[in-house]
Structure formats: C-alpha cells, structure tokens
C-alpha cells in the first residue's frame, strides 16, 4: 500500500516494495507510481524500490507556483530523505530522466547510479515541435480517449497497438481515480521545453546507463547519445525495435539489463553483489 510523505512543502504519494539495495523510480509526463508496475513487481525480490507521483500527477497536488525541473528534482531528494534513504540507484524515463539528471547534479550524495531511459539534455527543434503538437492536440481532441490514442503513437510501438496493449493502457488511464488535469499536464510539459543540462552533465560522477529506443520518435537515439557522451564513463545502448517506454513493453529484458548494471555499480562502489 502506498502513502503520502512530507517532502518539503509537499505531501508526495509514494509506494515502496521489496528488500535489498534502494532504487528510486522517477516517472515522466503525467505518469504515476502505476507506470512502474512491471518493475515494482519484477524487481522487488532483489531491491527495495520506491516510486512516487510527481507534483501535479496522481495523488500529489500541484503547488500554486509553476513547476520547474529543479523543484521536481528537489521533491525527489526530499522523498528519499523523508523515507530515511541515504542513497539510491535512480532510474527515470522521459521527463523523469531529466529530473534524474538534475537530482544527480543538485543532490549528488543521494544518487548511487543513474539509469536514464528515453532522455535528452536539451530539446532540439524536432522535439519542441512534437511537444507543441501535444499542446494543440490536447485542446482540439474530441475526447480524452482520442487524445491518448494520438499521444501514445509517440510512446508505444506498433506491436503494442496491434496486440491490444495500448487499448488496455488507455482503459486503465481513463478509469484511474486520480486523473491529471489538462492544466497540470501542460504545466508539467512546459517545464521541460526550455530546460537544459547541456554543458553541466560532466558534473555527474556516478555510474550511468543511458537507454534509447531505436524507433522512439521523441527521445531519439542521437539525443540520448549526446547525454551519454557528456557524462564521464556513461554507457549508451540502443534497444532496437523499441520506442519510448520499453520498460513497459519488454519489462523482462529491461529489468534484466538494469539489474546487471546495478550489480556492476554496487560491485564498483563497495565490492557487494546481489543475485
């Protein structure tokens, strides 16, 4: 069962499962604890995993002031402190990967390693155009299902559409008891458009794995490679045939890869391995 914790001025909804080394999972645009279901279920036998709803998503309220990536990174840091976690392996996807970058830069002592899925250091013109399209699609779609059917074309593979996976995800989103408002969705989106970590990522001094989907139309592999190139010693891998969220589409493969990475990170850090 999840619970709210006091994280700075916010009551942040969190869920924690499992035993072992600590892992913090940070979701993306409008995503909640539920987006990490396959990791919370598939890795809890090896790790203590903590996930949370970002400000303005799910069961965490949006403050009055406009959100910033820096503030959301501070939220993540306060969640760790509130739960008494001294340091954690941090994994984030999409917007959550940008929050993860800032968390490592602003609170380096809390971060043991980084997994950055579908990431970038600065939106290029193409990605800015896609986010702009989300703005007008949200306002013009005839209903929420139609908007999600469009939005998820940017997120999931044709395989996921054709198998019925996307339809089920949309059904679950529309049935969720704590939907994100359109206003908060756009506030969250806008926080990332002008945000940049280019030129600062060299300050990250923890083992880092950057993963990109080979057919991701948003966080294209070249954007992820630019992030990895700037972080000292970072690994960069392309998951061929995958889109924006392989941790949901192929969770067994994704979980196995990050487990291997976390084992290596722990081995280098303290000589400890976990099976």
UniProtKB/TrEMBL annotation:
Species this chain originates from: Arthrobacter mangrovi
InterPro entries: AB_hydrolase, AB_hydrolase_1, AB_hydrolase_fold
One protein family per Pfam: Abhydrolase_1
Residue ranges of every copy of the AB hydrolase-1 domain listed in the record: 23-123
Keywords on record: Hydrolase
Protein name: Alpha/beta hydrolase fold protein
Source taxonomy: Bacteria, Bacillati, Actinomycetota, Actinomycetes, Micrococcales
Single GO term (MF): hydrolase activity
Highest taxon, organism lineage: Bacteria
């Amino acid at each position: 069962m999840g619970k709210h914790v006091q994280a700075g001025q916010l009551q942040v909804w969190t869920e924690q499962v499992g035993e072992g080394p600590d892992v913090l999972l940070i979701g993306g645009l409008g995503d909640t604890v539920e987006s990490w279901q396959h990791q919370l279920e598939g890795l809890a036998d090896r790790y203590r995993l903590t996930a949370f709803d970002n400000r303005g998503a799910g069961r965490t309220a949006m403050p009055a002031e406009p959100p910033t990536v820096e503030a959301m990174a501070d939220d993540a840091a306060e969640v760790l402190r509130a739960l008494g976690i001294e340091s954690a392996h941090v994994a984030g996807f999409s917007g959550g990967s940008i929050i993860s970058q800032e968390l490592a830069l602003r609170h380096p002592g809390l971060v043991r390693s980084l997994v950055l899925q579908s990431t970038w250091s600065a939106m290029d013109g193409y990605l800015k155009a896609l986010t702009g399209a989300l703005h007008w699609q949200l306002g013009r779609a005839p209903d929420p299902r139609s908007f999600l059917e469009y939005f998820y074309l940017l997120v999931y593979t044709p395989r996921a559409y054709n198998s019925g996976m996307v339809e089920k995800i949309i059904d679950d989103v529309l049935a969720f008891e704590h939907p994100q408002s359109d206003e908060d969705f756009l506030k969250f989106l806008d926080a990332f458009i002008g945000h940049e970590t280019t030129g600062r990522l060299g300050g990250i001094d923890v083992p880092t794995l950057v993963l990109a989907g080979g057919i991701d139309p948003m966080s294209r592999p070249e954007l992820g490679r630019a992030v990895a190139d700037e972080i000292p010693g970072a690994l960069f891998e392309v998951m061929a045939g995958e889109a924006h969220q392989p941790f949901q589409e192929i969770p067994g493969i994704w979980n196995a890869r990050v487990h291997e990475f976390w084992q290596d990170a722990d081995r280098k850090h303290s000589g400890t391995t976990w099976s």
